[in-house]
């Protein structure tokens, strides 16, 4: 069962492993979103005198690769668990059923997940998946201690309305840098997710957990003067338990992990380590499609600014010099 000490130790390890790689990811995303400083490395006073310019090459390179070459509807395959026709038929039935569930989950996402996967692989050579099983959709609400009949009836009506959606599975691609997992494990034994939500959303999240079997509130959370305050929370999964807390604080909730597995997985797009270097995910990140052209993009943008400066100075130069002739001669 997790406690603050064991959680802090696990998080400290994951931060140490991933910080260099995430620094590289930030560089790649700054080029893709055209927010990079093309004069980085120059003295601050020189940077201040030079305008920024960002060509569309980084963005269009990635978008073209994703739009033109990546398939967005994955195919699923289930290996039979044994030999014989019966096992094959069972595997085929499960394969067909999961294909329907997954296709519905993918189509229900706000942004098509596999397209996001393709974009992340091109930008950073790394991507993740989160398969969420909505237990609340299936379990009828239980009246909480101190909850009025009116409040309970309202929750039960909302549950009944949402239950009309037949699929309790949702699929999403977490935002870059939001989820930490052991980089050498395809199916990790622990996953940590950091995200920002509003204070009233965090309170509602904890209240929803409190009324269910197998959940316990270790430390209550009280909303301050601003219910819309953004707070950073940490959610952790192991095959046995799930916890939630404010970042760096005490555990607010601990519960048993009903499905019994960590609902996140991740993958690199391929690559290798430099000779003589220990394993470090930053080297895999640097083998993304975008990294091979970053320096060229930066130099082209600098050259474009320089040419534009020369053109403007030439266009606005005075055609006749009306100053001192001796100065002009010098």
Provide a descriptive summary of the structure in words.
By secondary structure, the chain is α+β, with helices and mostly antiparallel strands. It has helices at 4-32, 44-48, 57-69, 85-108, 113-124, 135-138, 149-162, 199-210, 281-285, 294-316, 325-329; strands spanning 126-133, 169-172, 179-181, 191-198, 215-217, 230-237, 241-246, 251-256, 264-268. The chain is built from eleven helices and nine strands. Strand 7 and strand 8 (251-256) form a beta hairpin. The protein is extended, with a radius of gyration of 27 Å.
Highlighted features:
alpha+beta, 11 helices, 330 residues, six-stranded antiparallel beta sheet
- Overall strand count: 9
What percent of the residues sit in helical stretches (DSSP H or I)?
40-55%
Taking Cα atoms only, what radius of gyration do you get, to the nearest Å?
27 Å
Strand content: 15-25%
Which spans have pLDDT < 50 for at least 5 consecutive residues? none
Helix count, DSSP H or I runs of 4 or more residues: 11
Distance linking N and C termini? 83 Å
Judged by helices, strands and strand pairing, the structural class is alpha+beta
